[in-house]
Design a protein that fits this description.
- It contains 18 helices and 36 strands.
- It is globular.
- It is of the alpha+beta class.
């Protein structure tokens, strides 16, 4: 449902400008705009204060000469990182954006200095990562899409659109923002006070892969009210109690959107389905085999080879000469949301492992997947335990004592979890007892290396897995007082990893320790590639091959690095990333079990993760084994899924080309089979504004 009725097509531009100037100057029935209005917001993570936003709105002048300025201060800190931004916007009485400036620091510490200005029909901008200009009609409206911005900028955008009756606003550098209302409600304070507020849930489409969702006041001003998510909220002060209801209503609206999309892409496979003429990947052997037919029924592989094509009563036949059939891929490092599910599947990822989330949200999502209410990959959950500190990540349990940590272990064990994740602020003296207790309960333990420890220390304490290659690399130079709860865990690596001798006794001894203990390493190479190798204005190297497939604002954002890579450190950080690749290769050669995970954008990043292992020197077949049956073994599920064998689950993907010869072919997924249904990836990509990477094969139905 469009947010506004578009009436301006029947009104000349001059009348539009008069109406808007009257509205902004307070001469219409909406009531006079206050000369100055300050609105304060609190950011909350799992019930803990995480930041603030202050929006100061002031108007000078009246009528056509009025100017309205928004000054926004925005800051939050979670998991030892977060942005600090100062933002200013100036809008004239006709609704034209005249200025937009942002300064401060990004989430990972890069300086932010971004500006937009308009004089007459000439607009220009400079983000630090790009710059440009555009000529606009003297009466033409256009807003600027800042690379770094606060949620407060939605207020002027939505107000102008509302008062001009627009459901779409042009955005510079290019594209447009389409505005849609998903829900409306009247929220009343529960304490019995006679206070209520009319709210609207707004979705902004067009610039990015996912729509931007926000709650706004449902009045003439359309002021930003709240941004909510599982365990997270940024909301007007005094209305914190509204967050749970807003989240429930938002979740229902998002569920309705996803249900419609899932219905469009879900293709049930009744009877028997024959996949004919495709090469097939022998995951345990890590080799691609010559073409054989594969028959599936009710979500299981029931025959392969001559026995498959000889069977009768075949309902569906998929002709796939030139294609390759592989087991579904496993992304072993995600933080999944409902909107991510179809993108994972479109990339051929049929199983994901969630490594920290809001526990009730994740449990509900898993239940909906099991009951068929949602379509997505199999979701495996790790139990998350963090220590209380100013730098804590707020997911799962945040504990203040060893006793609380052990109770958290009990909670996860009672609910069938099989592995735990310990995090940065978990106290070193708790690690050994917690790991030992978890092992007695039958749970594995992995995670980050807690601050003031080294990777070798957590191995001695019994860790079964270490996440992120930077956490491994820190082992060789972190000092006892280095606080890796902060951004130091990234910048120390960039400054020092390049000088490590991987053939020296310390590195060889550490790798030997990993091998002896069979400790799994989850490197997440792709998430560090851009962070360490990208200068501002350059394209993130992880997206070199696909940038032209992506929506305009998303593609533009790939030229901005949240890490502070500059002329003084760029060469050093790039060399340090190359050394991390080399460490991964050394670990693989020595026999350290590796799993492929992204901790980054769902679906789009996973093929690059696999390509980076090949770049490090691991043969493509072994990388694909790691991402299929190898991950299934780590998860304890290899007896049921992960290989193309009779009796196994038919979690399968059909790929255009042979990824054992060219790993980049893994991006060209043509079909995905999961839990008895078939999915068309191209449909999913198009629905998210992404140009598909492959076309459907020929499918014969009765």
């Amino acid at each position: 449902m469009p947010v506004f009725t578009v009436f301006n097509a029947k009104i000349c531009p001059a009348i539009q400008r008069i109406l808007l100037s009257l509205a902004l100057s307070g001469s219409l029935c909406h009531g006079a705009l206050a000369q100055e209005r300050i609105t304060r917001y609190g950011a909350w993570s799992q019930g803990h204060a995480a930041g603030k936003m202050v929006v100061n709105e002031s108007t000078q002048g009246t009528g056509p000469l009025a100017r309205t300025e928004w000054r926004i201060q925005y800051h939050y800190l979670d998991n030892g990182r977060g942005p600090t931004l100062s933002e200013t916007l100036l809008v004239d009485a006709q609704g034209r954006l005249l200025q937009h400036a942002v300064t401060g620091r990004s989430e990972f510490g890069s300086p932010v200095r971004e500006s937009f200005s308009r004089s007459g029909d000439q607009a220009q901008w400079n983000s630090g990562a790009d710059q440009g200009s555009a000529r606009l009609g003297s009466e033409e409206l256009a807003f600027y899409s800042a690379m770094e911005s606060s949620p407060g900028v939605l207020s002027p955008l939505l107000r102008i659109a509302h008062r001009l009756g627009l459901d779409s606003v042009p955005s510079l550098p290019r594209g447009a923002t389409r505005i849609e209302v998903l829900d409306r409600m009247l929220w009343r304070k529960p304490e019995g006070e006679a206070i209520s507020v009319a709210l609207a849930l707004v979705a902004l489409h067009g610039a990015d892969v996912f729509p931007t969702l926000a709650w706004v006041r449902d009045d003439a001003d359309r002021a930003f009210f709240a941004d909510v998510g599982p365990g997270w909220s940024l909301i007007e002060e005094g209305f914190e109690a509204a967050a749970p209801e807003l989240l429930a209503r938002q979740d229902a609206a998002e569920q309705a959107r996803l249900k419609a999309l899932m219905s469009a892409v879900r293709q049930p496979l009744p009877g028997k389905t024959l996949i004919r003429g495709a090469r097939w990947f022998d995951a345990p052997a890590a080799v691609m085999r010559e073409p054989e037919d594969v028959l599936i029924e009710k979500g299981r592989i029931i025959a392969r080879g001559a026995a498959a094509s000889a069977q009768g009563d075949i309902t569906n036949t998929i002709d796939a000469p030139g294609s390759s059939l592989l087991p579904g891929l496993w992304d072993m490092h995600v933080h999944v949301g409902k909107s991510d599910l179809l993108l994972h599947l479109a990339a051929g990822v049929t199983t994901v492992r969630d490594l920290s989330n809001d526990n009730p949200y994740l449990a509900a999502l898993q239940k909906q997947l099991q009951q068929g209410e949602l379509l997505g990959p199999r979701v495996l959950a790790n139990g998350f335990i963090e220590g209380e500190s100013p730098f804590s990540a707020r997911g799962g349990f945040v504990v203040s004592s060893l006793d609380e940590a052990l109770k958290a272990v009990d909670w996860y064990a009672e609910r069938g979890y099989t592995q735990l994740k310990l995090y940065n602020s978990f106290k070193p003296e708790w690690v050994g007892p917690t790991v030992a207790y978890a092992h007695k309960k039958g749970l594995k333990v992995g995670g980050h290396v807690p601050a003031f420890m080294r990777a070798a220390d957590v191995l001695d304490a019994g860790f079964d897995e270490i996440h992120h290659i930077n956490q491994v690399m820190l082992n060789f130079f972190v000092k006892p007082k280095d606080d890796t709860r902060t951004l130091l865990r990234f910048y120390l690596v960039g400054d020092n990893a390049h000088r490590i001798n991987l053939d020296g006794p310390e590195a060889r001894g550490f790798i030997s320790q990993l091998v002896q203990r069979r400790t799994v390493v989850d490197p997440t190479l792709a998430t560090f590639e851009g962070s360490f190798k990208q200068r501002q204005g350059q394209l993130n190297p992880s997206y070199y091959d696909i940038a032209e497939h992506l929506p305009p604002q998303f593609a533009r954002s790939l030229r901005r690095n949240s890490m502070d890579i500059n002329a003084s450190n760029a060469k050093r950080f790039s060399a340090s990333y190359d050394k991390m690749l080399a460490l991964v290769a050394k670990m693989h050669q020595a026999g350290v079990p590796l799993v492929a995970g992204t901790d980054d954008f769902p679906g789009l990043m996973f093929p690059r993760e696999l390509a980076l292992y090949v770049k490090a020197g691991i043969p493509p077949g072994e990388v694909l084994r790691m991402a299929t049956v190898g991950s299934a073994k780590v998860a304890g599920l290899a007896q049921d899924v992960g290989a193309i064998e009779v009796g196994q689950r038919a979690d399968l993907i059909l790929v255009n080309g042979d990824p054992t010869r060219d790993i980049n072919a893994i991006r060209r997924v043509q079909l995905v089979f999961r839990d008895g249904v078939m999915l068309d990836p191209a449909h999913v990509w198009r629905a998210h504004g992404i140009t598909p990477f492959a076309a459907l094969p020929t499918i014969q139905r009765p």
